[in-house]
Design goal:
There is one protein chain. This protein is mostly beta strands and 162 residues long. The chain folds into two domains: 81 residues, Nuclear Transport Factor 2, Chain: A, CATH 3.10.450.360; 61 residues, Nuclear Transport Factor 2, Chain: A (Roll), CATH 3.10.450. The protein has two helices and eleven strands, in the order βββαββββαββββ. The strands form two sheets. Strands 4-5-6-7-8-9-10-11 form an eight-stranded antiparallel sheet, covered by helices on one side. The protein has a three-stranded antiparallel sheet with strand order 1-2-3, with no helix packed on it. β10 and β11 form a beta hairpin. The chain starts with a strand and ends in a 9-residue tail after the last strand.
Length: 162
């Protein structure tokens, strides 16, 4: 299970206080200078309009920026050497392409959308969803052309991801 941290505050010691996302009692001070310059530079080049940027360490080799851009909440992940890995942002139901909506309706009749996101990597774009019917939650990913690429049971908070 990956440990995930979020920047809680930047204090007068010029450190960011990282808070464990699963156990908020675990906090780590990390000097701002320790966020790799290559990571910050690559991020600023890819997302020049980013606002309210908060940095966190996804794991020992990956950094995550959470930010606002174009009135949407984004996250972007980078390796320690500044290579962009993935970005995600939430979308509303009316922003989902017809081909994707058709697949969701056909494959998961009666399910309600809980979360709708776009995930982009070097391999392309995919639409990711958390859906629910009754007590069953699923995580689903669909290509823009409507091809189902992933379906599985959703993990509850605190269980982590495989």
């Amino acid at each position: 299970m990956k440990k995930q941290y979020t920047v809680d505050e930047i204090n007068d010691k010029r450190t960011a206080v990282l808070v464990d996302r699963e156990d908020e009692s675990i906090k780590i001070d990390i000097p701002l200078k320790d966020i790799p310059v290559k990571v910050k530079t690559a991020f600023e080049q890819k997302f020049p309009g980013a606002q309210n940027v908060k940095w966190g360490k996804e794991n020992s080799t990956e950094w995550e920026a959470e930010f606002k851009m174009n009135a949407k909440n984004f996250s972007a992940n980078y390796t320690v050497d500044g290579k962009w890995m993935e970005s995600e942002y939430e979308i509303s139901a009316n922003e989902i392409p017809v081909a994707v909506t058709t697949t969701l309706g056909k494959e998961f009749p009666g399910y309600k959308l809980l979360v709708s996101e776009v995930s982009e990597t070097a391999k392309g774009k995919v639409y990711e969803f958390e859906i629910k019917t009754g007590n069953t939650k699923k995580e689903v990913a669909v290509n823009p052309d409507g091809t189902l690429v992933k379906k599985g049971n959703s993990k509850e908070k605190g269980e982590g991801k495989d």
